[in-house]
């Protein structure tokens, strides 16, 4: 055994002596560069790849041939800049950096070096807890990170962890096709719209800005290339102006936040003649403004709408009276926040304006009290006018319906029965029960629907198993069709 251990030690010494004794390269180092690069790409991080330079002079230059560098976690900003600025380093198709609670000076140290090296994708994620209040935000703001112009980058994804970010006042992002900005405090002097508009971003197709601050005055985007824009949770934005002739998908979610001190309404002016999908969830801009936007379109591929029922409904006109016209829609996702109220009348009001509908997704959300879901206060108008239960409605293109968070209430049974009547070519109905609904309650709901569907309609019911955090198909009782 001792002799065998000595042989192994001797072999290890020989393999690692390439530079020390001039004997020659070890066998691993003798492999071609492309194979060595493949080996380094399988290491956890770029920092680990850089450390292989200590093996020998042969290895000292191999890491610089990597097409991608990933630092998770990243070294301090100066060390990272040193790696990116190495003279032997080649152009990179991807740089991915993860930090935790980084300060502005750390990010500012390496970003210019990344801009010089990168010819592909940049991903930077600074993990940091969000400030709890506006005062804390101002206190923790610090200096802004100056974003350089990435002239050769194809995509940029920045999660700044609420660090300040100053956009470059000049330069062209000539190859950029996508940019995603999260948890950013935008700082002057350059506006976001100036950077992402044509001609500074002539190829930009996707723009996403989430959970960010500092876009107080105006976002004016004039782009001939943008196809998708997603804006979500932008504090105190007052104006949104889009001139986007080729835009296909627009998502606007709670971007006009924290404007309580200013009684004037925020402004949204959007020119997007080729828009196919619109998601608009904005509390501050009231229904009539959203409807004016919808009425500019003749047809939309998909539309996401949310109906909010206050617990005390006292005005039917306020409930649905403003909605008199919708574009022709192929796919409708309807979310109902109903607080226990019946939603059949209002849903009927919308569906009779969507006769070209192909698919319907229905999400039901109410308060957590299951006992409160089946009854309304005495004299409630939520089910008015009751004529919706007898009026003719033909949805002769609707083939697929999915309903989430069903509670098993009587008004839900009534609505589904009517849906079977309206949807004359329905092929698939899938119902998912709320996780608090018992199996016996679900089967009671199924029995109430027995005989309502057409033979050609496939109906499936799904339960949620809390113990396994998964859903399962509710098997039919006896030999039925799912009821």
TrEMBL record:
Highest rank taxon of the organism: Eukaryota
InterPro entries: F-box-like_dom_sf (IPR036047), F-box_dom (IPR001810), FBL15-like (IPR055312), LRR_dom_sf (IPR032675), LRR_FXL15/At3g58940/PEG3-like (IPR055411)
Segments forming domain F-box/LRR-repeat protein 15/At3g58940/PEG3-like LRR: 149-282
Chain segments carrying region Disordered: 1-23
Occurrences of domain F-box (ranges): 28-66
One Pfam match: F-box
Name recorded for this polypeptide: FBD domain-containing protein
Organism: Urochloa decumbens
